[in-house]
Amino acid sequence: MRKRGITVKLFAVTALFFLIFYAMILIFQLLFFDRFYQHHKTKEAREHIHQLAAAYEKNSWSEEELTKHTLSYMKETKSPLTIVDAEGYQLVQDPFNIMLETRDGYVVEVSLSLLVTNYGKQIRELRITEGDTLMVHGEADAEVPLVIYPTVITKNGASVGESPFENDVIVEGKVKSISLPKAGMIERGLGILYDALLEWFPLKDEQLKKLSKGESLQLDWVEPWSGKHNLVLIEPFKKDGEMQFMFSVTSLQEIKETNEALQLFYVYIGIAGFILILLLSLFFSRLVSRPLIKLNEMAEKMVHLDFSKVNPIKQKDELGSLSNNMLVMAKNLDVALNDLKQANDKLKQDMEKRVQMEKEQREFFEHASHELKTPLSIVKSFAEGLQDDVSPDKQDHYVEVIIEESAKMEVLIQDMLDLAKLENGVIKLRKTSFLLSEMIEDLADKLFCIAKEKKVTIEIMPKNEQHILADYEWLERVMQNLLMNAVRHSEPDSVIVIRIELDAENGDTVFKIENKGTQIPEEQLDKIWRRFYRTESSRSRMTGGTGLGLAIVRQILDLHEFQYGVENMPDGVRFYVRFQ
After folding, report:
1. Contact 81, 248 (CB under 8 A)
2. How many Å apart are CA 143 and CA 540, to the nearest integer?
């Protein structure tokens, strides 16, 4: 039986998964979405109003604080809220209001919740701010005369509201504060709140009994004039020994309207999905199947190391054919030989590196043993002299020689240990800022006797010197080695010149130490930094030193990432270091 192509398989799998996913969404939308969303919205509103009532009952909030929390509740739940008694009378200040200060000094509250229901946009267009003068026509509250329910608000000749009634009171004053619904809050919800109050209050006896027990009420309310569904929440609490209620109305009609729109929307999604399946089929055939077939043809040619133009070969299943050909190709020695060649090259490099390391280690031990052999021989011979009861007048000299040679060996061993630490990278720099000239002056003082014995003078010439950042102790070791090196190889009655200058182009500090003496052969300039390296003529062991000084200098400067070098002058040698 002929197997189906990969394009057909991909098309069938994609279509099946899409249909299953689309069916799951459609079933959920038709059967569960209404109840799920209504439950979620009801639970959210119930939790918010319960938390608000508990907090208000526990804390002594001012009118401003209560208004702030009320507006926060409206913003989070998108539902209006008020506090009433058992008869439905509001007990708190309207959260949306204007506080007017009259000429007589009275502060009148202008309640806006009813007016913004129908004229919210027009009131915002008045752009009322603190300090504006307003004239308000409206009805005074029967119990609180300083509360006005406006029918008309006038500012600078522009009015908003209904036609004033004959018995309306008129109040004029300056705006002390204003609170309006923020953009996006539905003013119609405020009207529903007052309609719901008229519908449900006064409460029935059964409802009052539940509320008196601390149980909250969750009521379904259908507006009689529009048939829209709403959720009414009544949360009881005690304030100042009296039973009060938080009353909120949440619209549920938008859920049904949204669900109906979504159902129609999913029809269009189904049509678009079917078109998408067709496009995916074309996509798979052009962008997936063709490259696989071409790759399959290339694999067949590569089996025989033939990379010429491939010819199309019919296959029952492209992936099956490709896997077989790739298996054969994997056995081809071309890739294996290339891998083996790379492995051999790497092995050769590793072997060469290992041989070089072994050579360096062998040379190091040879040099170290050579450096230790002479002082050990001297110590041994002089110790044997002491053992053979050399004449008393020579014993002190023998002891001095033994101590001197032991000190040289101690210095050599310490240098070898320090060099090993530096080369192994175990040294951690502790950088500080300091002046290089001060360090060199201290070193010059310490080497005064040695310089005097060699009949050389050390001259330090700082110019526009700047602080450098380095490890003081290790850099002191560098300067000491360079200074000692210059003293040892200077001609008698000469001057060692140390220059510390600022490179104006890049801000680097440049250190140079120059001594008069025998030049270093040009071919050996790069070799003097090696361990135990000495030139035949001017760098013999007789000049002193362990042969590790410049190697230590190199390691310390490399660790700091400073540039350094050595060069011949017409009458001597110059070492330099550039501090970034």
Report:
1. yes
2. 116
